[in-house]
Design brief:
mainly alpha, about 0% strand
Length: about 80
């Protein structure tokens, strides 16, 4: 289990970080596939767990950015 400290990220930067998390997940998934074909299923499973973690983080970051943008637009002026 990975413990992460909360980090404050600007809304626009959340989208960039989410894209990086997705790219990392893609790379981890490709590595998992290669490890599974080489006969390392336990390693592949660990890599897929990390890939899922990064995909979930990307979804959360995009949702947070969208919510912040919505709240900013909904504020009375």
């Amino acid at each position: 289990m990975i413990l992460e400290a909360p980090v404050k990220i600007a809304s626009a930067n959340r989208i960039v970080v989410a894209s990086l998390a997705e790219a990392m997940a893609d790379e981890l998934t490709a590595a998992a596939h290669a490890h599974r074909q080489e006969g390392w299923p336990e390693t592949a499973d660990g890599l897929l767990d990390q890939a899922r973690h990064h995909r979930v983080q990307a979804i959360r970051l995009r949702a947070q950015a969208g919510a912040e943008d919505y709240m900013r637009a909904a504020r009375p002026r």
